[in-house]
C-alpha cells in the first residue's frame, strides 16, 4: 500500500510523511526529490508550474510507487497532487499520454476521462480493499487526455495502482499556511506561490480513495488521527 500525503505548500506534507514513516516503518520519499532542476528554479523565482512542467514529475512519482508495489513494499510519498487529473496520472503514470496524440488530432478537448479506458493485465494488480471507498474493483483503468504534448521520462512499465494508493489531504486556513511558509528556511518554494496553489486545488471527490485531515493541531496528534483512520485498511493489508 502507498500513502500519498497531498496538499498545498505549507501544509506540512514532509513533516507528516516523515512522522508517519517512523511510526509505520515504511519507506518515505519527498516529491521535491522528483522535481527537475528547471522546475525548482522556476518555483524559486515565484513562477507557478504549468501542467507541462508537472506531467513528467507526476509520472516519475508514479514510476517510484509502481516499483514499490511490484516489490510488495509499502511506502509513503508526498505530492501536492492539486488537481484530480494529476492524481489520475499518479495512479496510471505515462499510460495517460498514449491517447493524447489521437485525441488532439481528432479535435477532442475536455474529454471525460471516466469514459476513456484501456485493457490492463489484471494479473499484475492486487487491489487492496477496506472500509474507505475506492475504485479498486475496476477491471480497466482510465486514461487521462493531456491538453498539450509533453516530454516524459522513460518509465518502468506503467502499472494500474488504483486501489493500492490512498491520498491523505492535509488542509489548513490560508492564514495558517502563510504563517508556516514565512517561517520555513532553506526551501525553494516561496510563500508567494500559496495563493496560486489554492486557486489550482481541486478537492477530492467521492470517487477518489482517500480522506482529508486538518493541520491545525500538533504533528503527533495529527499522525495519531491519521493512523486511527487508516486502521481498517492497515488490518486488511497485513
UniProtKB/TrEMBL annotation:
What Gene Ontology terms for biological process does this UniProt record contain?
Answer: carbohydrate metabolic process
**Record keywords:** ATP-binding, Kinase, Nucleotide-binding, Transferase
Stored InterPro entries:
P-loop_NTPase (IPR027417), Shikimate/glucono_kinase (IPR031322), Therm_gnt_kin (IPR006001)
Query: Per its record, what are the GO molecular function terms?
Result: ATP binding; gluconokinase activity
Query: Any transmembrane segments, and where?
Result: none
Membrane in keyword set:
no
Q: In which pathway does it act?
A: Carbohydrate acid metabolism; D-gluconate degradation
Q: What is its EC number?
A: 2.7.1.12
Reaction(s) catalysed by this chain's protein: D-gluconate + ATP = 6-phospho-D-gluconate + ADP + H(+)
**Which Gene Ontology cellular-component terms appear in the entry?**
cytoplasm
**Keyword Nucleotide-binding found:** yes
What family does this chain come from, according to its entry? Belongs to the gluconokinase GntK/GntV family.
What is the protein name given in its UniProt record? gluconokinase
Amino acid at each position: 500500500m502507498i500513502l500519498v500525503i497531498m496538499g498545498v505548500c505549507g501544509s506540512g506534507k514532509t513533516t507528516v510523511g516523515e512522522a508517519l514513516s517512523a511510526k509505520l516503518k515504511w519507506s518515505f520519499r519527498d516529491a521535491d526529490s522528483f522535481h527537475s532542476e528547471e522546475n525548482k528554479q522556476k518555483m524559486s523565482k515565484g513562477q507557478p508550474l504549468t501542467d507541462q512542467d508537472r506531467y513528467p514529475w507526476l509520472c516519475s512519482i508514479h514510476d517510484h510507487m509502481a516499483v514499490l508495489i511490484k516489490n510488495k513494499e509499502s511506502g509513503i510519498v508526498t505530492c501536492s497532487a492539486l488537481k484530480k487529473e494529476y492524481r489520475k496520472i499518479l495512479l496510471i503514470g505515462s499510460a495517460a499520454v498514449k491517447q493524447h496524440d489521437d485525441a488532439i488530432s481528432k479535435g477532442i478537448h475536455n474529454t471525460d476521462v471516466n469514459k476513456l479506458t484501456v485493457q490492463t493485465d489484471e494479473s499484475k494488480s492486487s487491489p487492496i480493499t477496506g472500509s474507505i471507498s475506492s475504485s479498486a474493483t475496476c477491471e480497466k483503468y482510465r486514461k487521462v487526455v493531456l491538453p498539450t504534448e509533453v516530454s516524459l521520462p522513460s518509465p518502468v512499465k506503467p502499472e494500474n495502482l488504483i486501489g493500492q494508493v490512498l491520498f491523505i489531504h492535509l488542509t489548513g486556513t490560508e492564514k495558517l499556511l502563510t504563517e508556516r511558509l514565512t517561517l520555513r528556511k532553506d526551501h525553494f518554494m516561496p510563500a508567494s506561490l500559496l495563493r496560486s496553489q489554492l486557486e489550482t486545488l481541486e478537492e477530492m471527490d467521492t470517487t477518489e480513495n482517500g480522506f482529508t485531515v486538518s493541520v491545525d493541531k500538533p504533528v503527533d496528534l495529527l499522525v495519531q488521527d491519521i493512523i486511527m483512520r487508516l486502521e481498517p485498511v492497515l488490518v486488511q493489508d497485513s
